[in-house]
């Protein structure tokens, strides 16, 4: 119960930085004496610091309220994005500031041991030359696109075939002597958007939210009250819905899948006048997609038209995909929605679908969270708010030097 309450209080401080002890007590339902004791433990551990002092409102009897803030140097985390479009490793502090970043080898990895070596090498490079107390490095989060058993840390399927069937949490945890969490890109993006909404304006993502991320392929997930729905289902399944009139050949071997009409896979094929040219994930290169997005945003007519057509298809399809849950909002993320013509057309397609049913469409939110940032926020939430918080090692650890 003590660890639970510590995590609860820390969660309020991290989501709504600047709350006072009495304001947290009102929200948590504990006495101010209990909150004072818990915050003292969090301050002594280095996770929390006191900020400015403000005069309370008349309803607070003129009391002076001391703001509580997360202390950025109190804890550190490692994050990894493992997808075809984004393969990076980062070191981040408790405030979410990225302190170091490294790209993994550009070519798609063919050897799982070599991939592990590259990740471990990047981490060791981060840590060498710093005096970061090891006790303040709390854990590592990795995200990938596919199907993940997040409890076991096992990747059931992924676009990076070298990851399929791998126990990434155990393998990396054993090499680095750290706790590791592994999850899908979609769930991490959803959690990140919920956290940022609370940080930004104190708004909780109430009700169902539909989250789609579009790169070479396409993944979807559902949030309820800001919490991703947990399952071992493959988040990429929606990308294989058949689209009437679509002619592109998919990586699954079928013709007309949604990813051939609305994702980077099909967009690049149409721009090359060869919709069936990419037979496997290995034929896809991140710089090709980045160049196409840049061309569309620069107003290159052909690129803009292809992205616009893809966005319209996706927007119409989201209406069908989300009809059963009635989302209060739709969130789109990934490199493809960064193309303006795609984003505008997706909004038009979504509006068209709902208006056909006589309904007002939910707001469409274009996420600015990339896959690595989502992994960073997943690490912070997992190892400070979700798992039991053990302050013992932090109380004994020295303060981290400036990094």
TrEMBL record:
It holds the Pfam family ROK. It comes from the Bacteria. InterPro entries: ATPase_NBD, ROK, WH-like_DNA-bd_sf, WH_DNA-bd_sf. Gene3D superfamilies: 3.30.420.40, Winged helix-like DNA-binding domain superfamily/Winged helix DNA-binding domain (1.10.10.10). Belongs to the ROK (NagC/XylR) family. This is ROK family transcriptional regulator. It comes from Falsiroseomonas selenitidurans. The lineage of its organism: Bacteria, Pseudomonadati, Pseudomonadota, Alphaproteobacteria, Acetobacterales.
């Amino acid at each position: 119960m003590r660890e639970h309450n510590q995590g609860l209080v820390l969660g309020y401080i991290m989501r709504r930085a600047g709350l006072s002890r009495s304001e947290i007590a009102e929200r948590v339902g504990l006495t101010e004496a209990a909150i004072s004791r818990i915050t003292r433990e969090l301050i002594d551990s280095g996770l929390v610091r006191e900020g400015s002092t403000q005069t309370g409102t008349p309803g607070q009897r003129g009391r002076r309220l001391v703001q509580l803030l997360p202390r950025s140097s109190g804890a550190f985390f490692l994050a990894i994005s493992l997808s075809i479009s984004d393969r990076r490793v980062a070191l981040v502090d408790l405030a979410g500031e990225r302190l170091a970043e490294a790209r993994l080898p550009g070519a798609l990895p063919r050897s799982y041991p070599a991939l592990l070596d590259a990740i471990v090498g990047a981490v060791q490079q981060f840590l060498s030359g710093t005096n970061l107390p090891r006790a303040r490095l709390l854990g590592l989060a990795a995200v990938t696109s596919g199907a993940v058993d997040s409890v076991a840390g096992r990747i059931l399927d992924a676009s990076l075939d070298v990851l399929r069937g791998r126990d990434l949490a155990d393998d990396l945890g054993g090499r680095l002597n750290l706790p590791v969490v592994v999850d899908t890109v979609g769930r991490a993006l959803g959690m990140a958007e919920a956290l940022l909404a609370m940080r930004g304006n104190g708004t909780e993502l109430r009700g169902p939210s539909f989250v789609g991320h579009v790169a070479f392929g396409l993944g979807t997930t559902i949030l309820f009250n800001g919490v991703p729905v947990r399952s071992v289902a493959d988040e990429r399944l929606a990308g294989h819905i058949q689209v009437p009139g679509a002619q592109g050949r998919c990586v699954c071997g079928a013709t007309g899948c949604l990813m051939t009409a609305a994702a980077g896979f099909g967009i690049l094929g149409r721009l090359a006048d060869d919709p069936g040219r990419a037979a496997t994930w290995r034929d896809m290169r991140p710089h090709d997609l980045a160049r196409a997005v840049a061309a569309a945003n620069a107003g290159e007519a052909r690129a803009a038209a292809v992205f616009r057509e893809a966005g319209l298809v996706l927007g119409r399809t989201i209406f069908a995909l989300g009809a059963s849950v009635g989302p209060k909002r739709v969130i789109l993320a990934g490199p493809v929605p960064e193309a303006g013509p795609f984003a505008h057309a997706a909004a038009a397609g979504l509006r068209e679908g709902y208006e056909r049913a006589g309904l007002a469409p939910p707001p469409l939110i274009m996420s600015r969270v990339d896959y690595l940032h989502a992994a960073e926020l997943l690490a912070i939430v997992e190892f400070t708010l979700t798992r039991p918080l053990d302050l013992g090692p932090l109380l004994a650890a020295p303060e981290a030097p400036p990094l």
